[in-house]
Amino acid sequence: MARKSVLIIDDEEHGRVLVKQYLKPYTDYFIAGECVNGIEAIQQINRLEPDLIFLDIQMPGANGFEVLQQIEHVPEVIFTTAYDKYAIQAFETNATDYLLKPYTGARFEKTIAKLGQQSRQLPFTVANSYSKSVAFPERLLVEHKKRFRNIAVADILFLQAFGDYTEIHTKEITFLNSTGISALSAKLDPAIFIRIHRSVAVNVTHIAELYRDIGKTFLVMDNGTEFNVGRSYLPFIKHLII
Description:
The protein is of the alpha/beta class. The protein has eight helices and 15 strands. The protein starts with a strand and ends with a helix.
């Protein structure tokens, strides 16, 4: 199994040192780099495409939430912060965990265990089998201009996280929904709507093409929208290739 790359993002040196110290026994992970501010973090995440980031919240340049809103590559996220007031907002971004400083080695160990559990996701074939026994809606009532518009689920091209909200994209219109992307995706057939990274789920019937360039995989929807597929989500795409 390939080792997973880690980027540590914290403006305080002792915060970065603590992560390195606690991560050292876990040989499945290697540290690809460190960042000391939000602007550098955005650049390094997109350049290095780490599998996992340890992300502080209050930083110069851009805070942790602003970093997540501006990145193209979306890794697994573990927040590390001295403030508990951001916990709810952090989990709404689909973060794996929230480490409140100062945390112990035992608490860090639980976080790594969570990562292991998430990596053992159901394969696409199992999700496909599961979908046959569950009734998923063919239409949804989506709020638009203080009313609810009846749209066909088949007309949805993709879902994209937008802060704490989710954009529902069809060919004709884009709806902004207050439900988070994970909760919204759970309402839809997992054989049709698949995640290609943490902030995007696509309707496989609207995929126009897939291609690779400079070691990255790109997916193009039939309306021309293009996405970079996150490395941890490539297995879900590969199951579609014959």
